[in-house]
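Loading example: each entry is read as two labelled lines plus one structure line.
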Amino acid sequence: PDWSIEVRDGVMQLEKRFEFPDFAQALAFTNRVGEIAEAEGHHPKLVTEWGQVIVTWWSHKIRGLHRNDFIMAAKTDQL
Amino acid sequence: PDWSIEVRDGVMQLEKRFEFPDFAQALAFTNRVGEIAEAEGHHPKLVTEWGQVIVTWWSHKIRGLHRNDFIMAAKTDQL
C-alpha cells in the first residue's frame, strides 16, 4: 500500500502503516526511521505498537507537506 | 502530572505525555519503555515525536484496564 494523505487540524500529513510480527521488530523499525530523521534533521510522528508502526511525515513550519516529506517517505520505504 | 484515563472505542486506557528537549531523547525514552514492555510481555502504544512521547497502556484481551496496566504506568514513571 502507498502513503495516504491525512488532514489533521487543517494540516496535510503523509501517513503509512508498517506491519511487523511482534513488538521488538516494530520498535527496531521505529529506531531505523529515527536514524534517518536525525540524519536529515526532519522528524516524523512514530506510533509504535505490538506488530505495527504508523509513520507520519509533515512539515511543522509550513503546517503542511513540503517536497522533503515525500523524500523522507520514500526513504522510509527503503528501510 | 498524573496519568489520565482516556476512553477510545469504548476501551479505557491509561495515558501520559512525557516531555524531552529533542527527538533523540524522546526516542531513547521510547526504547526504555520498550525494554520494560518486552520484559513484562505487556506492550503499550508509544507515540514518539520531537520533544515528547505519549505512552498509553491498556489490556487488549479485556478491552480495558487491568491492575497490570497501573503497575506498568508506575514503572514507566520510574524510567
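Helices of chain A lie at 23-40, 67-77.
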